[in-house]
């Protein structure tokens, strides 16, 4: 954990790169009053984890440094509720269980400092089930559908499973005994439901912390359905380079996935490790240049003194370097079982 | 069990007074091929049991005599899903658990021959929960709502609990290990859902047997919300007489609750016990008359040689006599805890 941080330093670390916090006063009280507040993030073990996941992994690393106890819920049952077949469930879980801690480690955080919890290990217990049924007596079909709408693939004819999903996510806060839940801003409606419903069955509302949703590195959205639009943790450097080379990134216009990835992920990692981002260019294109902050980089990009091609090249290199310690052989085997 | 019944006698007994059977061929095969087929009826421990319940209790008695093993599910969790508060749940269950076997006994059937099962004793187990979540991935919100619509009080803004209800009722068939479910025709949509959905999670469809829904003895419907429209098992003879005296029953017109009660319940009991229904009248109104079958009685009623007043009087007497062995003091105590 290194040196002791002051309250203000911890507060700064806790809040940075968040979009919204519901219950900010409660969070402040937790941070000053509780020795080790507990946060959890749930990730349904659905599609292949991709570098968009770094947003919350970095945020959890912040919270860890700020003195939180961190739990990562590998939500296998939620994956089933969101359409993963019962037969694939265990394989999907096995992949997540292997790749997420490996990525955490690649970012310089010892995964032993995070507790990884399998959803089905506690969500099938009688007390949980009873609470789920109790909560379902308070939540209308309408409100459950609304809560699920930005997270679950509901389609034209929503399945009952999709609208049970938000209630279980709310209950997880209680059964994981956490003080705060972390998630993307897409989780907002589920977070609000959790705040409203837990007290109705005798539990207290938790703090809800949201990170921004990044568009894909490549397209305009980190599309869950198009693998080519996402960088997979197991992509080799040639694949990463190829995908990024196709990314939308107009000279001088910073509103794109590459720049947002730099802002929210890559430059955060760089700054935290006190290393600059070094762009290597032939002398005729400006030569080597180093950036210590995103602001510097953005300024140059807007001024067109940093060209998208050079930027893409360094981003691709940095991503490949970040994950070159992953046991790709082992993970690929697991991924094949999980995704066929 | 008395003398051994032939297949045809058992088949007759099984089928009488039913409205519909889904899977009649399967039922025939069960009856000839299985030593002791198993049937269950679920009753959610919601409102006060009333004499309308006799329809299914008599039907279960038939099935018992025909060689079935009989389970009665006292569905406490279903009651919660249908709006009974968590706080009242145990009290409601306690009342049902006491009054239903007492009524069974009053009808001349040893309740030891029926197995009474509490819903929450098995519906909260991990396997059940997992199957419920699995099934919810196959059932649309729309279809679950449709299935629940005639059984659960959904209202204008249905709660999620109300549409989970049918799925649990379907699963109960598997977890109670039954061959057939019995219920009123109002259960039809849930029964159809059970037939459709159980095979999707690897279980076989069960036979579904339906009894007619009787209108209330008194009004046109056995209204669940108006206690004055129903005869409670604990009503004293004066109350029974008073309620029945107000019943709709036009001279010569057999289409009313009193006549239907006679047809489906009272004359069934009489015939089975080989005793006639004896109407005592002053000589000037026709004197004493005995009926061995409903057909005889209906004929006289239509011919206006049996007056509604005399009929009501005997029906009230018979009902009171039927339940005069109940331990009203003990049951009233339990009812007060359950219904305040």
Report on this structure.
2 copies of one chain form a homodimer. Chain A is an alpha/beta fold and 340 residues long. The first copy, chain A, folds into 2 domains: 7-211, HUPs (Rossmann fold), CATH 3.40.50; 234-322, Tyrosyl-Transfer RNA Synthetase (Orthogonal Bundle), CATH 1.10.240. Helices cover 47% and strands 11% of the residues of chain A. In chain A, β5 (180-184), α9 (188-197) and β6 form a beta-alpha-beta unit. The first copy, chain A, starts with 6 loop residues before the first helix and ends with a helix. The interface between A and B is medium-sized, with 33 and 33 residues.
Précis, in short:
Chain A is of the alpha/beta class.
Defining traits:
8 strands; Rossmann fold; homodimer; 47% helix; Tyrosyl-Transfer RNA Synthetase; 340 residues; two-stranded antiparallel sheet; 2 domains; alpha/beta; globular
Topology (SSEs and partners):
The structure is a homodimer of 340-residue chains.
Chain A: H1 7-15, E1 20-22, H2 24-33, E2 38-44, H3 54-65, E3 69-75, H4 76-81, H5 89-106, E4 114-118, H6 126-136, H7 141-148, H8 160-175, E5 180-184, H9 188-197, E6 207-211, H10 237-245, H11 257-272, E7 277-279, E8 289-291, H12 294-302, H13 308-322, H14 328-339
Parallel strand pairs in A: 2-3, 2-5, 3-4, 5-6
Antiparallel strand pairs in A: 1-6, 7-8
DSSP helical segment count of chain A: 14
Overall shape of chain A: it is globular
What low-confidence regions of chain A span 5 or more consecutive residues with pLDDT below 50? none
CATH architecture of the largest domain in chain A: 3-Layer(aba) Sandwich
